[in-house]
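Hey team,

Sharing the Prefoldin subunit 1 run so nobody has to redo it. Sequence (120 residues) first:
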Amino acid sequence: MSVALDLELKKAFGELQIKMLETSKKIQVIDSQLDVLKQIKRHVEMQAGTLPSDTITYESVGRMFLLTDVEEIKQNLENKINQLCTRTTELEESKNCLETNLKESQDKIREMVQQRKEQS
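Structure output:
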């Protein structure tokens, strides 16, 4: 009976460890994505803020460039900033959920270890 219980505990413990590792890797990926988005956002904000109103601007469309009004370029940059902020918020929410799952997994592992100690 205790042998079956030990095998069951080992299996559950192994599954929780794998889940924790996967969750940790996902959190690292989200962190790197957030860093990239922050860099892009800073770059776009610098571009939007440094364009004087009398600048001749071109916008790339595929392999060609079209003469475009500065205000339209600034509006496009603002839209891009808003999209980056939205994506950043989504990633942060995902990261919070993953961190919550990771903490729950850690708590379950601690609980299993505590139960094992009490049984011994």
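The two ends are 14 Å apart (CA to CA).

Ping me if you want the raw files.
A.
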